[in-house]
Amino acid sequence: MEPEKIPKSFGRYQVLGVLGRGSMGVVYKAKDPVIGRLVAVKAIPETLGLETGKEQEYIRRLLQEAKAAGSLQHPNIVTLYDAGEAELGPFIAMEYLDGVTLKEILSSGKKLSLPQLTEIVRQVGEGLDYAAQRGIVHRDIKPANLMVVEGNLVKIMDLGIARLPFSDLTREGRLVGSPSYMSPEQLKGEKLDGRSDLFSLAVVTYQAATGKKPFPGNNIQEICYRIINHDFIPAGRLEPSLSEGFDRFMIQALAKNRDQRFKSGKEMFESLRKLLLDKEDTRVSEDDQEPEPGKEKEIPATVIKSEPVAYEESSSFSSGSDSAIDDIFRDLTLTHRSLRLTPEKENKTWQIVMGLIAGLAVIGIVVWYLIRG
Questions:
Q1: Where in the chain do CATH 1.10.510.10 domains reside?
Q2: Any idea what DSSP says for residue 53?
Q3: Closest by Cα among 21, 30, 136 to 77
Q4: Contact, 265 vs 129, CB < 8 A?
């Protein structure tokens, strides 16, 4: 089997390597030579071998992503730079994100703490609220579409199946997205609003907290049936460190009836933030309890080493390098991204290796002549 050929360019963008591939196409790491900026180019290359009819629909969906993302300017949504057509077909050039997806974090076996969950819900919720106010529903919020980057920033990616106002590509009645994270109304083909995306975010939150999906199944039919008809196992049973308050939060966030859910990402965040602050108040109160007679009062561990868990009125983490999200990012940079060598990096590595070999050969020849002399 012949290795897949990587295109040299898309328009003016010079391809450096493959970042990933999925059902919607291939994403390349590329460089804009005009301004020297790294970009992510999403395209549908001929190597996918799509049927003519299917290829046309994917092309339309790709251009729809460009239209959707191009209308959104928000720090928690991936930025679109350009869209065009090349020899291999249409493409979009987006912001290059040097980070790790939440899917990679969860796949490594990590569970997120309440402070980390709260910050992710805050940022993703803000991005979803911004999109919903402009009539755009993402429809495919899942761990693979949420990326954690440096600076404590969480980015929403892949608006490829977003429902735009007046769009005829993702009409109600068509099942488009990832079933495990879909809302009941999306599975039923009903008209959607921003609360559908918030349900998906709640599924992600439950999974990140417990390591399990709330509505598991052996096949798509079973998963869909559970989402529409079954209750989920309380998160506290799967992860004992989670409180009853968190279970109540999940009950509202994953309500079958959208009218019983949080109305916005901000409301969802505020509810989780209250749980976090209540937990901090409880911990402080326990630390302040009088010691038993004859025992000296111990210095609380929080005084020795404070943790960035309590939210101030700014409702966000400190941007310092000691934040919980940055810790996750650093850990996974070593275990995940160190293996993602692009052809550019591989070439540099080989150049260094060959240079060392050549240098050692020269030294060996010189030493041999000195010994002979």
A1: 99-281+304-335
A2: H
A3: 136
A4: yes
- Whether 201 contacts 110, CB under 8 Å: no
**From CA 236, how far away is CA 127, in angstroms rounded?**
28
Catalytic hit among 32, 140, 158, 326: 140
Residue entry with tokens 């901000």: 266
Q: Where in the chain is the domain with CATH 3.30.200.20?
A: 9-96
Q: Which helix (H) or strand (E) holds 259?
A: none
140 is catalytic: yes
Sheet with 153-156, side-by-side order of all strands: 99-101, 146-149, 153-156
pLDDT tens profile 293-342: 655 545 344 333 333 433 443 444 333 334 555 555 555 445 454 434 34
Please determine, looking at this structure, whether the domain spanning 99-281+304-335 carries the CATH number 3.50.50.60.
no
Task: Give the tokens for residue 285.
Answer: 């109160």
A 10 A CB-CB count for 153 gives: 16
- CA-to-CA dists, residue 177 to 152, 163, 248, 319, angstroms: 27, 11, 27, 33
Say how far apart CA 192 and CA 185 lie, in whole Å: 7
197 residue type, one letter: D
> What is the domain class of 9-96 according to CATH?
alpha beta
In the 8-state DSSP scheme, what is residue 318? -
CB 79 within 8 A of CB 73: yes
Q: Using CA atoms, how far apart are residues 249 and 264, in angstroms rounded to an integer?
A: 14
Contact yes or no for 156/128 (Cβ under 8 A): yes
- pLDDT tens for the chain, 373 residues long, are 456 678 899 999 999 999 887 656 788 999 999 999 999 998 866 555 666 677 777 777 777 777 777 888 999 999 888 888 888 778 889 899 988 999 999 998 999 999 999 999 999 999 999 999 998 899 999 999 999 988 889 999 987 666 656 454 454 455 556 899 999 999 999 999 999 999 999 999 999 999 999 999 999 999 999 999 999 999 999 999 999 999 999 999 999 999 999 999 999 999 999 999 887 766 655 555 655 665 554 534 433 333 343 344 344 433 333 455 555 555 544 545 443 434 444 455 556 767 778 778 878 787 777 777 6
| Angle separating helix axes 244-253 and 194-210, nearest 10 degrees | 150
